[in-house]
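Researcher: Here's my situation. A collaborator sent me these components and asked whether they could plausibly form a single complex. I don't have experimental data yet, so a predicted model of the whole assembly would be a useful starting point for our discussion.
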Amino acid sequence: MAKSVAHHQADQHGHDHGHHDLESLKTLGFWIFLMTDVIIFGCLFAVYVVLRENTAGGPTAEELFKMPGVIAETFILLTSSFTSGLAVLAMHKGKLNQLIGWLAVTFVLGAAFIYLEVAEFIEMVNEGATIATSGFLSGFFTLVGTHGLHVSIGLVWMIGLILQLRKRGITNVTKRKVEVLSLYWHFLDVVWIFVLTVVYLMGVM
Amino acid sequence: MWGNLESFSDFFVTGDPMILGAQVSIALAIIAIVFVLTVFKKWGWLWREWLTTVDHKRVGIMYIIASILMLFRGGVDALLMRLQLAMPDSEFLHAEHYNQIFTTHGVIMILFMAMPLMFGLFNIAVPLQIGARDVAYPFLNALSFWLFFFGAMLFNVSFIIGGSPDAGWLAYPPLSELAHNPGVGQNFYIWGIQISGIGSLATGVNFVVTILKMRAPGMTLMKMPMFTWSVLSSCLTILFAFPILTVTMALLFLDRFLGAHFFTLDAGGNPMMYINLIWMWGHPEVYIVVLPAFGIFSEVVATFSRKKLFGYNSMVFAMISIAVMSFFTWAHHFFTMGSGADVNAFFAVTTMVIAIPTGVKIFNWLFTMFRGRIRFTTPMLWTIAFIPCFIVGGMTGVMLSVAPADFQFHNSYFLIAHFHQVLIGGVAFGYFAGLYYWWPKMFGFALNEHLGKWAFWLWNIGFYVCFMPQYVLGLDGMTRRLYTYDFDMGWGPLNLVSTIGGFLMGIGFLFQVWQIAYSIKVHKRDTTGDFWDGRTLEWSIPSPAPLYNFATDPQVKDVDDWWETKQKLARGEKLPPKPALAPIHMPKNSAIPFIMSVFWFGAGFGLVWDWLWMAIPSLIGVAVCMLARSFTYDDDYYIPVDEIKRTEEAAAALKGATT
């Protein structure tokens, strides 16, 4: 039954129960936010697909993409999704140190992914393939860059969360925060599968 | 460091006496506000009670004040255009200035007037209608408001600093691209909309969760007030539509800022892609603003006919189907693009189909009035006036949806008349009705009905005098965005009539301002909390609503629960006893939404001028604000039972003193 946060104050569970309800409300809101993010990526994919043949005499996807680096990025990101899942499992077992440890591993993998992606971008720019070269490259850099930006924001978020966990331990509030972050991280993983397929695999095919 | 500024006049707009006048009056207004706040020592009050508030009722009031200011500015734009067009070969405005004015008129009226007025009414009414203590995320709600506010300020500042955008309200490329529009005006457009758009999206999330999760016990979905249903359908549409706007603005910005080729004519860009994207947001957007107006009409028509709303289920069905179908009609805005007969046929049919649920609603309102005991109060007058106005606007819409015929109507004054008729006759009339209807609930005093009726008639007569001639002008071949026309065209007389109508509406607006000022002075106190003999929960509590809204959770049994409760009391039935008072959990005020939005303003302003030294630190400021919020754990408190008791007793005493 629909109940507000404050309604719970009337019953006997007191302070903690009220917070618990507030936390599930926030998780729901985050799910809905992720749905809107799906639409953002959906638009960027659509734009990329419309523009991907418009190379305007510049380099094509086949000439540019170097698959070994992309495969490495993919495995690193997929592994980081797995480790963030392990972090949540550790949290449910109440093991704070394990939780922080797995989050730290996830962070390192995420940072490695970003390093590889930035290196890939720099190499392309050095070869003269910039965002201003063609419609295809505008679409490419924006789509892949938006995903990278999301991952980078997730990394900052992860540091903030690790600090909060060290200070406060596993509470209802920090628990919800870890769950939401892990949701976000898995979401980025799914988006990357589409990037890999639509941008890279279909690009070199 | 100042990069693209070579002289003073590159920054401040100079040389136009009207703009100079505006600059001087803005400076004087700011000085006056600062002076008044300082003399009356109101800075602390302003900060504590308003700028840092997270209370939905206050956020709602701030939205409404801001939107009325924007209505004034958008209205002045409109009257300047009408003055220019009143006579053939007029030299009142030059072409460039005219282009800026029709651009800002459109953007302001839709995004900075209709949207915030709508969000204001959401905030005022929805939590009270569903028996909740606040929205789901009060902090986010305040952030939404301040993002809207600073986005709107950023857009408006272009008028005196840097120059206004001038590529039309939807900024079609290639005209809005750097090659054709090298000034900063278009950048102000992008960042003003982008920043306020983030706020709109957050409001959409907030109200969807509020409505789905925070309803009073017993209020199932099909017992919700119709306005709440309309807000739910509007917010669901926001969730799907606004991300598209965010992407579109971001891509246009990348074109202008980094030289990308999304919408350019060269290097593989595709301008028509922008037009598709912007209308994939833009068409749902008009339904986003009109659905809540439909909700308001439903509340008003039931209250003032003293009858249950006719066809509750079909109304809900109509709203949701409009929300869904609004995503499948966008290409009717550019049948002339040349996408072929099959595509045009699809969008013509969907456009015609979406008129059906709208027609269902019209019949529901008519049948609600049928054999009702109608009271002709101002909210009801606006509702009654809306019906014929919207029918004519809807019918001309169906005419426009016929793709082959649209090749003639496209971009003519026929179209201008059509969309003003649905947006003024539907949205503006609806929000006025809502504003009058909930005004006593917001402020605890009533608006003067006599002045309100003057305003109503001036607006209504002015509306038809202004826009009916424009249909004819459109059929006579007058296209939109013309800044002048030859005497030989023969459009002079009808344009003059149209201008007179525009000014009648302007006088109507002045009457509304007078009405508000007069009513504040007279201050006819609403002591009952149920000023209109209403039907829904917001009328069961004192006016204005106490900080915590409901002292105890209302237990809902019926649609229009408050009306049913009153009926039971009148029959002498006993109501179940109210549960005992308990401390109420409330969110604390926060300065972060305001400060973070100031940083957004700085970031936007920096990016407008290509000043990274300003944009980057501001964006870091935004990030720091987000982290500061994340590290804040002490963000709530409890209102003790004693205080609730005192507040409730005071309201009861006020009621008892008059009845």
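Model: Some features of this prediction you could bring to your collaborator: The beta strands of chain B are 584-587, 636-639. Residues 95-129 of chain B form the longest helix (35 residues).
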